[in-house]
Amino acid sequence: MIKIISRDDKKISFVTGISETLANTIRRTALEIPILAIDEVEIYKNDSALYDEVLAHRLGLIPLVTQKSIGEKESFDLKIQAKGPLTVLSKDLKGNAEVAYEKIPIVILDKDQEIELVARARLGKGIEHSKYSPGLVYYRNLAKVEVNKECDGCKECVEACPQKIIEVEKGKAEVKDIYKCDLCEACVEACKQHNKHAIKIEKSPELIFFIESWGQIKPQEILSRAVSQLNSNLNELSKTIK
Asked: Do 180 and 146 share a structural domain?
């Protein structure tokens, strides 16, 4: 069972009852999703302050929109031809691949400085290089907070909570958004300093799963493709064992 907490084009978070072992496997398998990124750069002219190697490295980290229909052996050429004074941005990469964000700075060119290059993009996996990573995938335990009769509404825990999710109502502390609690126990320590043991925090067996996309594919697709890749890996393992 999955309960969506928040979702948009760049990030999704949800509560799930799967084990930490399975959650960690999905997290790692996300790095096996084929992602498009610049892999080779031919630089014909570079009068900028950046070395060719630095320029190529910056180009490799620009997220490119990755369609499912792209074949493993396909490559895409992107060209830049610019003359200063100006700031060369990711949108200046012209070719048959689309950048995820148009305003990523690549290099600043002063007057009369020029760059001319061809960048070749191909599919790769995050287990090969981080530039092929589809995004940030992580999880943590859902918190379970109990407030007992010792609570006198002193508000010490309210001021101590870094997430600002505790409020005092009718003389008793209450957590208003349990999904934001990251188990830091700052409120518990503040309560102890007030000579009270009114708050108890434990890890729930449920997990909060977070997926933040770098822009190549949507976060929902990262999850579905990671699960699909995991199933493929298990099928291969099953065949090998047989």
From this structure: yes
pLDDT in tens, 30-58: 999 999 999 999 999 999 999 999 999 99
The answer to the question of residue 222 being in a domain is no
Residue ending a domain, among 131, 151, 181, is: 131
Q: Are 174 and 167 in contact (CB under 8 A)?
A: yes
Torsional sign, CA 103, 107, 110, 116: negative
Other beta carbons less than 10 A from residue 13's beta carbon = 17
Q: Are 166 and 192 in contact (CB under 8 A)?
A: no
Residue 147 lies in a domain: yes
Average pLDDT of the chain is: 94
Using the predicted structure, report yes or no on whether residue 1 has a pLDDT greater than 80.
no
26 vs 31: CA distance, rounded Å: 9
Percent of the chain having pLDDT more than 90?
Answer: 79
Residue 22 has pLDDT above 90, yes or no: yes
State the Cα torsion 114-104-130-26 to the nearest 10°: -160
> Residues 143, 201: contact at Cβ < 8 Å?
yes
Give how many domains the chain has, as a whole number: 2
| Model-wide pTM > 0.90 | no
